[in-house]
Design brief:
The chain is an alpha+beta fold. It contains six helices and ten strands, in the order H-H-H-H-H-H-E-E-E-E-E-E-E-E-E-E. The strands form three sheets. Strands 1, 2, 3, 4, 7 and 10 form a six-stranded antiparallel β-sheet that branches. It is globular. It starts with a helix and ends with a strand.
Length: 238
Amino acid sequence: MGLADAANRYVDLHKPWALAKDPSRSAQVLAVATQGVNLFRVLMIYLTPVLPRISEAAGKFLGVPIRAWQDAATPLLDVPLGPYQPLATRLDPALVARLVEMPSATAPATAAPAAATTAPARSTSTKQVSGMIGIDDFSRIELRVAKVTTAELVEGSDKLLRLTLDLGAEPRQVLSGIRSSYAPEQLVGRLVIVVANLEPRKMRFGVSAGMVLCASGDGDGLFLLSADSGAQPGMKVS
């Protein structure tokens, strides 16, 4: 996982999809893409013992079968890639949770819960509150005030905005699915509420380290939750 994180950071740092807009940098784009493909190949070589079928499919895409551990020492060059096919689909954590939870013999059947994502948390549209929690459960969630220092569109996504948040002691990047309701320029300088201790999530467009909170109802639109005047970045919400 450490190597996968390093590979993701390399690609995100060089952003070949952005470089490709400038024809004069085509050689640099090719070099970055080649390095990215080779990092992927090394990871697949290491995963072959536990994911042999995915490794076999990766070898077909790479144009060279993965045969030996020692292949990782030799980069793949001057080999045409095959048509890309998704190797796996992301598991829905909520559906996995339903598979392993023990149902109550007297509890009525309920619909599957929505999956947790790094998009904004939405309020329920029903008037009745369900799924009560105790104070110990609530105390595990660390809500903090954050200031949006930068906001930008995420290229390739029609839902996400890339936010840089000031939490007082540290900057934090959050990918939030609020693009349909907010333009980036509306957010810079705004105070928001963020789940600060949410485990970082690797997404297609980068790592999201937190979740900004929004409200929503039956109609369209998301509404950011914000702090009152006087609140400072990093303050704990309780």
